[in-house]
Amino acid sequence: MNKIKFLKLTALWLLALTMNYGIVTAAEKEKTPVDYVNPYIGNISHLLVPTYPTISLPNSMLRVYPERGDFTGDVIRGLPIIVTSHRGSSAFSLSPYQGDEAGIKPVITYSYDNEIIKPYYYSSRLDEVQMDVRFAPSHQSAVYEIGFDQLKPTYLIINSRNGEMVVNGDGVSGFQDLRSRTKVYIYLETEQKPEKITAEKTFIKLYFGDKVKQVKVRYGISYISEEQAKKNLKREISDYSVDNVANKGKEIWNQALGKILVKDDNLNNKTVFYTSLYRVFERPVCISEDGKYFSAFDAKVHDDEGKPFFTDDWIWDTYRAAHPLRLLIDSRTELSVINSYIRMAQQSEHLWMPTFPAVTGDSHAMNSNHAVASIADAWAKGMRDFDLKTAYLACKQAIEEKTLSPWSAKPAGSVDAFYKEHGYFPALKEGEVETVPEVSQGEKRQPIAVTLGTSYDTWCLSQIAGYLNDTDASELYLKKSYNYRNVFNPKTKFFHPKDKDGNFLEPFDYRFSGGQGARDAYDENNGWVYRWDVQHNIGDLVQLMGGGNEFCKALDDMYREPLGKGKFTFLMQLPDHTGNVGQFSMANEPCMHIPYLYNYGGQSWKTQKRIRGLLGQWFRNDLMGNPGDEDGGGMTSFVVFSSLGFYPVTPGVPAYSIGSPMFAYAKIQLDNGKFFEIEAKNCSTENKYIQSATLNGKDWNQNWFYHDDLKNGGKLVLQMGNRPNYNWGTKLPDASLSAKSLK
C-alpha cells in the first residue's frame, strides 16, 4: 500500500469518528484500527482450545505465536519460525544461547517476561538468560533482533525438528517434513558473520564469539524449495530492521481493518470488534510464491496463473459468517479462495470439493460438505469470475460419491446408499455394534447432523443447478433438501434419530442421549441445538413447530432449559457445548444463527435482546473473552456481523437478518468503492431495541434486507430505545429467504 493511500484511509477513519458525533480525545485521534487489537483475548480457554496471539499479516503464509503450554505458563520452547496450520505448532525453531557449548540443545526453553504482542510485532525479555527478543513478519519472511546482556560465548541454533539443515553459502537452509508429501523450507541468514558453523542432521549451530551484544536474523519460508525461500526473503526484506518491517506490517493491517470503521466511546467495545476482525484475517492463507504454489492435493508445483492460491480453511466453521464477511469487504480474496477450492478438486484423485483444506491437503474433518454453501453464496451475491460448472460438479460429486460419514475420505458405501433410498442417515440402536467401514469409530455416525447438513448442502446444489439452467437437477435437489423432515418428530418437535427400520430411538433425552459429544445422534452439541439446524428453510421449520408463536416459545425454552446435570458432568459429556445460556451454546458455530431466528417467528425484539446479551456475556476484552474454539474467524465473524447489526443467516440467500448494533455508527467500505453505513441513534447498553428504521431513505419495518440493498452503498438508520417496540419487524421474512415450496 502506498503512503498516500494509507494517509487517506487514516484520515477517512478519523473523520468518520468525529463527523456529527463531537470531538474525540487526543489519545483517540492517535489510534488507528490495528491499535485496538488485543491478541490476548481468549488466550485462556473456558474448556477447550484457546485463541493464540498470532503475529502475521492478513491471510499470510508466515504466522507465528510463542510456543508455550498455555498462557499462564512462563516458559516458551524456542523462538517460533512458522506455524503451518491453524492452531498448530511451529515448524523449525530458533534458539539463542550463551555459555558452554556442551549445554546446547536442539530446542531451548526460556523463561520470559514483559511480552508485547501486536498483529505485526513481537517482543519479549528472556529474563533468566538475560536476552531481549524483537520480531516482525512479512508475508513469507521475517526478521529477528536478539540482544545479549552478557559477554559469553554466543550461539544461535536453528532446528528443523523433523528434517534436515545444511550450510548454504552465506546462510543456512533446510526443510521440515509435514505430512501428505508436504515439506516446508527455510533459508536464513544473519547480519553478523558467524565465526563458526557446525551442522548436525536436523539442526545447525552458529557461533558468534564471546563479545556479541546483538545478533540480527532474517529468513524466508517456502513450500516449494529452499531456493524459493531465499527468493521470498530477498523480495520482501532488504535489511535487518525490525522497525521497518513492523511499520510496513502496521500499514497493511490498517488497510485491512480500516475497511470497517466504528464509532464508540467504549474502548472495550472497539477492542473486541477489531480483535474479532483481526481473527477473521488469520485464515485462509495465501501460499502463492512468485506466481507458483505447491499443492498437497497432487504433490506438485503449479503456476497460479495470476490467481493466488489459498488454503487452511475449516469450512464447516467458516462458511457460516467468515466467507460472507469476506464477500463484503475483501471480495478479491474470496474469489481467490473459491478458485483455489476448484483447483484443489481438480488436483485430487476424485473431483471432490474440499471440506477442511490445509497446506497438507484435505483433512475431511467434521460432517457435511459446506464448501457448496460458499459457492452458492458467492454466485447469489453477484460474483461471477469462477467456473461455476466445474464447481458444481465438484460439489455434487463430493456429496454423492464420497461417504457422508463424518471425518472420512472414503467413497460412499452402504450407509450412503441407505440415505439415498430413505432420505435420512440411520442411527444405531443402543448396544448395536458398528460394522460399516466408512464410519469413524471415534466420530460415529452423527446421523441427525449428517441428515440436516446434507439437506442444506443439497439445497445449495439446487440453487447452483438453477443458475446453470438445469431445471430437472434443481428440482431433484430441492426435493432432497427437505430430507430433514424425515427425522422430525412431530410429537416432540425435535429432530430425532431413527434406526434403519424407520423407528425413532426410544427412550431418548434431547440433552444427553447420543454418548460422548452426542455423536451417536448429533455432533458436539445436543438435540436442543440441532433443533434449529435447517438454515435453508426456516419458514418450513416455523410451520413444523406450529407457527410463529410456538416457534418463538421453543426458542425461549432452549435458553431457559437447565443443564439437567451439574456443569462438570454436563461438560464431561459435551465439552464443545460451552458458553451456555440454558441449552444454547455460544461457543459452537451451529448456534450462531439461532439468536436471529426470532425474526422468522415475528418477534424481532427478542433477537435484539439476545444478540446484545450474548455479545456482552461471552465476548469481552479479557483473557477469557471468547467462549469456545475460535477457528480462525469461524466464531469471531459472528461478533463482527452482530456488532454491526446484521447477520447472514443463510449463506446462499443474498439477504441479511437485522439484529441490534453495538455501535452508534459504523461504515463499511465495499470493494466497489461504495460505502454502507449503519447509524444507530441513541444507541447504548440499555438502548438495544429498535424503535423505527429507514433503509436508503425509505421507512423500513421489516427485519431483513437484501444484498442488493447494500452492494451499491447505502445507509441503514435505526432509532434505538430501552423498551421493545413489539410492532417493529413483525412481518415474517419474505418467502425468498427460505427454500421454495415443493411442487
Describe this structure in words.
It is a single chain. It is built from 19 helices and 36 strands. The strands form eleven sheets. Strands 7-8-9-10-17-14-13-12 form an eight-stranded antiparallel sheet. Strands 18-31-32-36-33-34 form a six-stranded mixed sheet, with helices on both faces. It has a five-stranded antiparallel sheet with strand order 4-5-11-16-15, with no helix packed on it. It is globular and about 80 Å long. It has two domains: about 65-255, Distorted Sandwich (Beta-galactosidase, Chain A, domain 5), CATH 2.70.98.10; about 270-735, alpha-1,2-mannosidases domains (Glycosyl hydrolase family fold, Up-down Bundle), CATH 1.20.1610. About 55% of the residues are buried. With about 750 residues, the protein is an alpha+beta fold. Helix 7 (about 320-330) packs across helix 8 and helix 9 (about 370-380) runs parallel beside helix 12 (about 445-465).
Descriptors:
single chain; about 750 residues; Beta-galactosidase, Chain A, domain 5; 19 helices; about 30% helix; about 20% strand; disordered N terminus
Describe what is shown at a glance:
The protein is α+β, with helices and mostly antiparallel strands and 743 residues long. Helix content is 28%, strand content 22%.
